[in-house]
Amino acid sequence: MKKRISFLFVLIILISCIPPIATAEDSNSSTKVDTEQSTSSPNSDKYPGTVVVALIGLISGIIGSIFAPWVNWGIEKRRLKLNHKTELIKEWRAFIEKFDFIHKNFGNTTVYGAMRPYMDDNIIQKFEAQRTFYATPDGGRGELLFKQWASDQVAMIEKKWNLL
Questions:
Q1: Which DSSP state fits 117?
Q2: What is the distance between the alpha carbons of residues 164 and 160, in angstroms, rounded to a whole number?
Q3: In a domain, 31, yes or no
Q4: pLDDT tens-digit profile of 119-146?
Q5: Both ends of the chain: CA-CA distance in Å?
Q6: Based on the domain organization, do 23 and 73 belong to the same domain?
Q7: Which of 16, 51, 83 is the last residue of a domain?
Q8: Which of 7, 39, 66, 164 holds its CA 20 to 30 A away from the CA of 100?
């Protein structure tokens, strides 16, 4: 957006600097005007264009100095959020991989607390269900159901955040 605005201001400045094109009809009248202008001030025609160009430059400088930091701040803010989310996903995956799901309760960890607002309600109920036993399937994925669910939730959150 900043480049488009800058391009428009440069275009306006260039257009204002181009002298008007004289036609054949104006050639006779231009000699009269030239003789009349020579009696008045010789640079009177140059100053209004210069003033317009200077004002356009001033206005574009003011607009650029106001909007450029704001645009850069917005871009940096998005970049920081993206980096933070990426780091969270990496930390969660590393924690889940090392966590002992057989002897410890994943629902009591700070990682679960951080993931919980982004998790599906069904999975939250499974992690927080009291005195519930889940039968593991024979073969395939699912020997450690809680690890599988936690890993699947991290993948779902990553997809929801458009990090893939």
A1: G
A2: 9
A3: yes
A4: 999 999 988 887 777 677 676 676 788 8
A5: 26
A6: yes
A7: 83
A8: 164
